[in-house]
Amino acid sequence: MKILVCVKQVPDTESAFRPNASETGYDESGLVFRMNEYDEYAVEEAVRIKEKFRDVEITALSVGPDRAEAIVRRGLEFGADHGVHIVTPAECRMDALEVASLIARFAQDKSFDLLFFGIMSEDYQRCQTGPMVAALLDLPCTTTVISQNISEDRKSAVVERELERGRREVVELPLPGVMTVQSGINMPRYPNLTNKLRARKQEIEVIAASETPSSEKCERLVRAYIPPPSKAGIFIEGTVEEQAEKIVRIIHEKTDIL
Amino acid sequence: MRHKDNIVVAEHAEGRIQPVTYEAVTFAKKVADATGGKVSVAVMGRPVRPFAEEIAAETGCDVYAMDSEAATVYNAEVYRSLLKKSFESITPRFVFIPHTATGWDYAPALAVDLSASGIAAVIGFREDSGPIFTRRICNGKILEDLRPLEDRPAVITLMPGVEKPHSRKAEKPGEVKIYEMEARAPRAKTLRYVEAPSASVNLQEAEVIVAAGRGVGDPEHLDAIGELAKLFERGALGASRPLCDMRWLPFDCQVGMTGQDVSPKLYIACGISGAVQHTMGMRNSGLIIAVNMDKNALFHQTAHYCVAADLHKFIPALIEKIRELKSR
Q1: Which residue, among A76, A59, A86, A39, has the nearest Cα to A188 in the 3D structure?
Q2: Cβ contacts from A onto B, under 8 A
Q3: pLDDT score at B296
Q4: How far is CA B169 from CA A168, B44, B136, in A?
Q5: Quick one: pLDDT at residue B258?
Q6: Which of A243, A250, A256 is the best mutation test for B, with the most CBs of B within 10 A?
Q7: How confident is the model at residue B1 (pLDDT cuts 50, 70, 90)?
Q8: Residue ranges, chain A, pLDDT below 70
Q9: DSSP for A3-53?
């Protein structure tokens, strides 16, 4: 059984973001990059499938600039067998269809049984790449997966997807198929030492994005900018004690609670 | 449907049209006012007539209802095949779909099917020599303005809560047209639905919710936040999703689109960034106070009062002041 897990390198979401000089995205200077959390859950889920079934081969794939190699290695540390890096130019904003086209182009002749994605990336939060890859490869797809159980014959999976307000939909997904993983599906483990050492040395397959035919776009960026000041709440100033005092007074005046 | 029409695809669940459908209609009407064309609504299901008539009456828009056995409940492949079939003769300019677990499940693939533009999680629109759609990136700290590609339709998913659903019935109902259609047999099939288990933490009845987010930093800091919640007679501890994902607090505590929808008299958000996924579940609370070191946190837009302070100093100070008041 062959599993592809697509992983993206993203900055820590609690960072102080500002647009870059060309207004095409966020300024990368000073940001700390790591694996997209949703993708970490996807990698962990793939590793759990490998532990359950024998002869499972996991490929971790990242589309991104040179720095994204670190995330392919991170995938190996978590337990992926192979690492692939489709290298895109630095500071180059890509829309979801461009990324999906690169992934689909790579995957089309590899006969993967299962393609895993995080439901979205933390920086762009589009939720588009996984379902677009599925459409490009004409594979069935289930998004927002919160549990999965592959059948003994490995021909299908019973998948729970999360809907609003805690409701769930149970879907039978035939394989080969695509899943996008919701956070909380598992508790990702820490990489073990063996995998860490292996990941450091193992060769990664590097593909230049320019080697693949130019792909279609699905949007045109006008510009990225800092949101205009909006109707934020009233900021309470002062020392911590003064702030606490003022908040208690506000609660007392505005509600019947205190 | 004529060329250049704006189509809203209705979402229904548990036999009801979801309010996000009407939010999308409000948005689509704004786009139509600025760029021309009219707004129609597409709805798929069986029975589909009651849905279609409700939408026509509520919105005044013409409704293109697709009656199909396969669409009794939502299915991505069925929705895609029915929509693609219906768009064969007449290409819409914009297809608006709510950005929900249903919408993001099929909209990106629909964009591929139609060789359309695809712009996700849109929060705004303006006209500036052509339509421009706005979306948030980087936790809402940056906005992006995007244009769809020309000469092709665009599939736009809309963030819930951006617009108000139509609150008044239309003066004159729209026209309902029902088409019986066969969908492509889907490969992925719904087996059943599982209802949300009733939460052991009853946030619905709480008068005060003190909610913790990733900004608390360390699980041991939850003690002070729990202590603050306990100071109120009907106080409860809530959480944003990341905390539950990390198992710092049980999923029963989760407030937001995928958790509980709450509206207490007082909501104190501690270290919550303010992602829409969270704020959609608590924005109707009476008094909202945000405590977050980050002055630019998105949550400050939802809060009535904001405290940009270190949680680990502010919460103990707040506990002390409340105790002082109570002992008076």
Answers
A1: A39
A2: 275
A3: 85
A4: 32, 22, 32
A5: 86
A6: A243
A7: very low
A8: 213-215
A9: EEEE--EEE-TTS---B-TTSSSB--TTPPEEE-HHHHHHHHHHHHHHHHS
